[in-house]
Amino acid sequence: MASQVGTHGWTQPLSQELPGYLAPLPSELASSVSTDQTDRKRKWQSSSQQAPDDGHPSTLYKRPAKRSCTEAYAKGPLLGKGGFGSVYAGTRRSDGLPVAIKYVSKGRTNKRLKVEGQGLLPLEVALMTRVNSAPACPNVLQLVEWFDCPTDYIMILERPVPCQDLQSFYEENGCLDESLAKKVLVQLITALKHCESRGVLHRDVKPQNLLISTASHDIKLLDFGCGDLLKDSAYTSFSGTYEYAPPEWFLQHHYHAGPATVWSVGVTLYEILCGFLPFRATWRVTSNSRLHFPRELSTGKR
Q1: pLDDT band at residue 280, thresholds of 50, 70 and 90?
Q2: Quick one: 8 and 152 in the same domain?
Q3: Could you tell me if residue 302 is inside a domain?
Q4: DSSP letter (8 states) at residue 182
Q5: Where does the record place Polar residues bias (predicted)?
Q6: How confident is the model at residue 108 (pLDDT cuts 50, 70, 90)?
Q7: Which of 44, 208, 296, 297 has a 20 to 30 Å separation from 231 between CA atoms?
Q8: Which pLDDT band, with edges at 50, 70 and 90, does 169 fall under?
């Protein structure tokens, strides 16, 4: 089971100006959800449980006044539950738009970023606001809007239908063939390059954080809860999943954004092709470690 390190492990100062901010796309242009670090065996259409009490929309966004999340959205099944909150399926009452409703506890993550014109926003909201600024990337999940509540903040996220996280997809359908793996890789790199252009480091790339359309095989990068602002200097605190962390973190306790991202993409690609992680113990990986490929893999895949 993957080891998870949460946002409380961050030590870098995050209250910084985000120059060049553009407002995210209006909700009419968004189409559907994000999960937290959720259960591995789930699709994004399931049965129902009660969600926490809803609050009023944040006044930092331009939304209709005096409107609560409950008034605007109907909650459906619980999609997943992670270290920082829960994610529910939902629909927008005004037009039936499928969404995901993500509740994040303020007590578990209190990092905030200053967004020009909007003040201090919760970290994940601020990072998604930045990556969703126009022109948006079709391979990054969209934030529709968010609500500021006394004990939680609630994110309304795009929910493609039908879709599944990539890990559940390959576990149920078998490892990806070369052509599909290539299609996924190209889209993932597109998403990450877009994040880089917006000054955002995702920091938790893995199959569970990729949604794949079961119809078109289009993918979307989700869950920026472990993210940070991009910088040239080394990161000295880790947030993400240890199995996808670069060796330099375990050896030197620091890492740089580019090489760490490339490493996590490589681990992800190996996993979806082979069905298991490339190293049994990432913290023991050195320059002398050898990577083994199953015999059935073609030379092209290797």
Answers
A1: confident
A2: yes
A3: no
A4: H
A5: 1-15
A6: confident
A7: 208
A8: very high
User: What is the spatial distance between Cα 43 and Cα 8, in angstroms, rounded to a whole number?
Assistant: 28
Q: Is 75 within any annotated ligand binding site?
A: no
Residue 15 lies in a domain: yes
Is the predicted pLDDT of residue 7 greater than 70, yes or no? no
Beta bridge partners of 166: none
Q: For residue 87, give the nearest of 70, 100, 105 by alpha carbon.
A: 100
Is 204 tagged catalytic?
Answer: yes
Tokens standing for 19?
């120059």
Domain boundary among 134, 158, 182: 158
pLDDT tier at 44, thresholds 50, 70, 90: low
- Residue 92: per-residue pLDDT: 96
Supply the range of the domain harboring residue 92. Answer: 4-158
Q: Are residues 20 and 114 in the same domain?
A: yes
Cα 75 from Cα 92, distance rounded (Å): 9
Strands (E), the chain: 4-5, 56-57, 73-82, 85-92, 98-105, 112-115, 119-122, 143-148, 152-158, 163-165, 200-201, 210-213, 219-221, 228-229, 240-241
Number of structural domains, the chain?
2
Residues 90 and 192 in one domain: no
Active-site annotation holder among 204, 218, 228, 232: 204
